[in-house]
Amino acid sequence: MSTPFGPCHLGSTLDDLFGLIPREAVIDIRRLSRRFQKTTGREWLSRSVTFDPHVWVANIGASPDVLVDDCLLDLKTAMRPHLDRLWLDQLLLYTLVVGDRRKVKRLGYHLVRQDRTVYWPVEEFLARAAGVAEVDVEGLSQEFFSIAARSSFLPREKRWGEPTRSGIT
Q: Domain total for the chain?
């Protein structure tokens, strides 16, 4: 089996696996964690926060990192964050698969290294992505699931038409 840090095998111990992680990566994660705890983490203590919110659907695997109040966020640790097509497509997917539309009104990113949050109203994000003034979020979501359910990229027994995780309507 391969890991981002090198190969390991089925008999690997935890010490073997942790030994693959460069010391600099551990130091970086500790620094980010402490900074987050002192800044954003402290602020989020007074808010409604759900980590790994239940907004993903079976085989799509779209899973934003955190729901803060009514804002669905993906945490990014990029040194030099930039909005590229992949990041925007991620938000688009979250917008289409989010279950409780009454709860999620905004979506965006929390840039961990920059200690900054950027977000947009869901309807505005979708309208801009579609290049129109207004969109029917519910209709787009249903169309997405209809297309995904018929898609041949999933084996027949794995196809779905209904969300399979609690909290999704």
A: 2
